[in-house]
Write a structure and sequence with these properties.
This protein is α+β, with helices and mostly antiparallel strands and 597 residues long. It has 20 helices and 19 strands.
Length: 597
């Protein structure tokens, strides 16, 4: 497929938070922006009248749009900052390195200090963040200071210096903010226990701390120390409302390439994220057309080599969703948890969104390719011997046990073919019997197609479980169509797909396109059947009321309805108006009926 036009790209952008990138005709990045909703934000550039001259020039130069989807708006803010610093696009405000986002540092030292910083040093210290505002950092540090006793001095608290009595406790000790490790008044073990709890709080894992503080609050309340209990309660509320740091960057994840793959019957999509010094600096998705029955492993190995060469990547480590063989020069990691897994999940998410956008674009630009892909996917998912180009779905409607009807809807190449929809009034079944009704309509439908030498569907879908499916199969057996047409039943509650002679139902992925089309067929059959059922009940109800009038027959009812459109208007009509339609005698009978009703 050729590169989609801007109009098509705009139609298929996701309604998700993330970063968008504008490229000019020479494929040079000219602008990076963040958005809570990428589609709305980018579309606004092309729908609004811009007063700023530079913005108008920017919009005229945009030829291609790319984007990176993230979890939250804060993540988008951080990623935008990284990309602007890396590429310095012409139409962005230039960012200087000293305007970095803040981090929280747990210093690599004996009795570690915990403090905010904008600079990261490779000295073994732990850095958490980045955060979008220093206010968030200070709020969190104030919380930690209120929960635990930490030193703030920058002394070298080595064991030898403490034993030599080199330091004296300061004002912080007398204020109760520090326990005086400088004079060996607090053990290293106790202090490190506090650091361990602080580390978990910063990460957002504070279950143990919450439990501890709730116990303290309860004891204080029982001891009638309500003010102290209230202070603990406020700390608990802050802890419970605190959100963990962004997962977009992590200083420990440096000079790493991240790859993920999403594939279907015809194509595979490999997403690549490049990380440098803990920041995402590049995202690219490669589309691969399958030639044979290639495995995801083989395609991913091929794509990794191609992408790393294309972007001249020399990273010594890569993250992938499963093991791949790339030789001994590259370390292959399959993350299972933590920040590494979150980065991999972000890559998978971007691959999925890219695939969805390609589907939408293909649907607009190349509907034949879209239909071919859908049909191939349905054939594989439903274990069919041929592509279901022609599908028919049946549904019964007998609300309150009256006027039983059935509907048959038809899809061709994955789309509704409304001219082929059919209604059925149940003729041979007395009362509300779904099984017998299904047997009747399936027989009538395919008996007629056979008699008229019309084409048969490749797939029949029965809205119902095993019972309705068995009833439909009886009709196919009678018509000698068993094993000539694939047939399945779909049960509403768990979206189970039942096959003839197979007691174990098939469960499709809830997000799969095959299931979505089956659900669309089922819903359309239900809608079409209910609509016909409602019309029939309404017509019967109206006709029945008029026909109960002595001397008023079916032809008279038809004439009246044609003229007055509703029973209400007939009941309210003047006798002279009725006379013009049905004559004096019948008009008088109708007026007397409604007068005495």
């Amino acid at each position: 497929m050729q590169k989609p036009t801007l109009d098509i790209q705009l139609k298929t952008l996701p309604n998700q938070p993330g970063v968008y990138q504008y490229f000019d005709k020479d494929d040079i990045l000219i602008y990076v922006g963040k958005a809570k909703n990428i589609k709305k934000r980018v579309s606004s550039y092309f729908t609004k009248t811009h007063e700023n001259g530079k913005t108008r020039v920017l919009v005229k130069k945009i030829v291609n749009i790319k984007h990176i989807v993230v979890e939250t708006e804060n993540d988008a803010l951080l990623l935008e900052n990284n990309l602007i610093k890396k590429y310095q696009p012409r139409y962005n405000v230039m960012l200087k390195d000293d305007k970095s986002y803040p981090w929280i540092c747990i210093k690599n030292e004996r009795f570690p200090r915990v403090f905010p910083t904008r600079r990261l040093y490779k000295d073994g210290s732990e850095y958490f963040g980045p955060y979008t505002s220093m206010k968030t950092v200070h709020t969190l540090l104030d919380l930690i200071k209120g929960l635990y006793h930490l030193r703030t001095c920058n002394y070298n608290l080595s064991k030898e210096k403490i034993e030599a009595g080199k330091y004296k406790v300061c004002l912080e000790y007398h204020l109760g903010n520090c326990k005086g490790p400088c004079e060996d008044l607090q053990t290293e073990e106790e202090y490190n226990q506090h650091i361990k709890a602080i580390r978990e709080i910063i990460k957002g894992n504070f279950k143990d701390s919450l439990s501890q503080f709730k116990s303290q609050m309860k004891l204080l309340a029982e001891d009638m120390q309500f003010e102290a209990a209230q202070r603990i309660k406020e700390k608990i509320e802050i802890l419970e409302s605190y959100q963990a740091k962004s997962t977009i960057v992590n200083p420990k994840i440096s000079n790493v390439d991240v790859f993920s793959i999403i594939s279907d019957e015809g194509y595979a999509y490999v997403n690549f994220l490049q990380l440098s010094y803990g920041s995402i600096i590049r995202s690219h998705t490669l589309e691969i057309k399958k030639k044979l029955d290639e495995t995801d492993k083989a395609l991913l190995e091929l794509s990794i080599t191609e992408i790393r060469q294309r972007f001249n990547s020399n990273s010594k480590e890569i993250y992938v969703p499963f093991k791949v063989d790339l030789g001994d020069e590259v370390k292959v990691t399959v993350p299972k948890m933590g920040d590494k897994k979150k980065i991999l999940d972000l890559s998978i998410r971007n691959a999925k969104y890219y695939r969805m956008e390609q589907f939408k674009q293909v649907k607009i630009v190349d509907p034949d390719r879209h239909a071919n892909r859908i049909m191939a996917q349905m054939k594989s998912d439903l274990r069919l011997s041929e592509e279901p180009r022609h599908i028919e779905c049946f549904d019964n409607s007998n609300i309150q046990g009256t006027n039983p009807v059935a509907a048959c809807v038809v899809f061709k190449d994955g789309k509704p073919s409304k001219k082929d929809y059919r209604h059925f009034n149940i003729k041979t079944v007395e009362g509300p019997d779904d099984f017998a009704s299904m047997e009747e309509v399936v027989y009538r439908r395919y008996k007629r197609l056979l008699d008229e030498d019309q084409s048969l569907p490749q797939l029949i879908i029965i809205d119902g479980g095993k019972g309705q499916l068995s009833s439909a199969l009886k009709s196919l057996d009678t018509l000698d169509l068993r094993n000539k047409i694939a047939i399945i039943g779909i049960a509403k509650r768990l979206e189970e797909l039942f096959y003839p002679d197979d007691p174990i139902p098939l469960y499709l992925d809830k997000k799969s396109e095959t299931l979505k089309i089956i659900q669309q067929l089922r819903n359309e059959a239900h809608r079409f059947g209910i609509e016909h059922h409602r019309n029939r009940r309404s017509k019967n109800a109206l006709s029945t009321e008029l026909e109960t009038i002595p001397g008023i027959g079916e032809q008279t009812v038809v004439a009246l309805m044609k003229q007055f459109k509703s029973v209400k208007r007939i009941a309210e009509a003047k006798v002279e108006d009725l006379e013009k339609v049905v004559g004096t005698a019948r008009a008088q009978k109708i007026k007397n009926f409604y007068k005495n009703k």
